[in-house]
Specification:
Chain lengths: ~230, ~375
Amino acid sequence: MMHMATHQMRERAKDPRYRVAAIDTSSDRAGVALFDGVDATVLAWNAHRNHTVDTLAQLDHLLRLAGIPLYQLDGVVVGTGPGSFSALRVGLSLAKGLVFSLGVPLAGVPTTDAIAAHLAWLDRPLLAVMTAGRDRVVWSRYEGGSAIDGPVNSTLDELRIAAKSSGAIVASETELSLEDAIVLPAGARVEQMARLGWTRLQAGQRDDAALLEPIYAHGRRPQKAMTA
Amino acid sequence: MNVLGIETSCDETSAAVVRDGRVVRSNVVSSQIALHQHHGGIVPELAARAQLTAIIPVVEAALAEAEVELDELDAIAVTCGPGLAGSLLVGVNFAKSLSYSRSIPLVGVNHLEAHLYANWLSSPGDESSTQPEFPILALLVSGGHTELMLMTGHGRYTHLGRTLDDAAGEAFDKGARLLGLGYPGGPAIQNAATGGRTDAFPLPRAWLGTSNDFSFSGLKTALLRAVEPYRLPDKAAEPEDDEPFRKHRPPRFRDGLPVSDLAASFQEAIVDVLSMKTANAAHLLEAPQVVLAGGVAANRSLRARLAIEIEARSGAMLRVPALDYCTDNAAMVAAAGYFALRRGAQAGWELDVASRLPIGGANS
Ligand SMILES: [Zn+2]
């Protein structure tokens, strides 16, 4: 898309590692990460719905900590949810601006994929859960690391029933008390996102940056137009 | 100095390149009207979704049309409020990334201020036109705002009056709904009014004494009463389906609803109040320059009538933006950003969106 200065090309040649930056604004638990196939550097924080204020500043902070100039990024990874629609769009808008400007590829990674990847070592069926407002959750079912089902927007009780009938472990970013189910914390989402995105981008699987959208997993609450 | 403007405050995605705050090199607008039409108005969540998928193609097109590379930009100006938070954040975060990755200065622009700065824009080939001269009496009329203010310099505003209830554009939208004319209401009423008699229905005007404030809610109620005799009961509501965004059901009427006369009378009542009050203020303040701005500034009847009243009552020069620069666009954002930058404004990475933002206030 845009031309890179020749000295930057030479700098990059000295750095053979394929390196991505990941941005996760699926919920208040936001994060940014760098991954180069070996080292992962992660910054996670509670965004308190201030994703627009925090996220780019945090990414800048992370790049400085890691001593990585922006032009040494070979790709950008962004969490696509499910999660808060508005918060997700903060990460996606930032990611779109970065790839448009840097001329590097973009990979969107579902947030539940990252949660499932964190617990893949368990080798058990898993329900990866994100909260979706009051008393509602959005979840996908994973087996052997791949999504089998979802995302489903449901009540907590429906989730409990699904966990019980499938014998799956539940992984959630927020504390859930579900009778008869094992609930584990979701872990460091953004690092898993960076790893999954890195693998996809390395394999040449990029998303269309213009068209990439969050996963819109709806409940049943019709929205009306503004002028009433 | 080339400024890239980005505007995503509501239901248009727009990007523009403007030189020296005046010369429009490109102004690309992607409208969502078709998307919102069958909901009878703007659905904020749908607007935000459309912003997110339009932003790259629109910015790309604006740069290509202006034949400008990112590295040739001297600044990026982005609307940070007021507007729909979910829509605003797409433009603001995208602009931040561009600014950050290319080390291009960023400035946050107040959308209302940008509307006023549409009066500074000129198209290529028309670059010799004069600039508005201070002090300027400004009438800002849009879907969310109706304000009369005095602009004493760049970024310096004194409020003279504002609407106490509905904004003028909101009145047009509500009127269009009552008449079953659809969304957006301004153009719908204007079209329906063509050939209609402006004095067919004696609709009320809220003059509010010598105050510079406005009020349009009484007018809306009067229109409702005029329409009522023709109204048929709504069809029974269909059972709620899984459609996450509610469809709009327009009102149903008996035959014989005088749509044209009602629309003409309704439009005339709004135009009357806006024009007379502005012309009176121009006279009392001895303002040498009057500018009209905002989406409603595209209304032909308002443009014509305001010119007549100002001519009749004061010696002021009236300036009205070209139609393309009345409705939401990024050229006006780039212009406002240019003059803000010249005053030393610049935004950091913490630039936030603000759904409410008074004029003169921008996070910059
Ligand atoms: Zn506007």
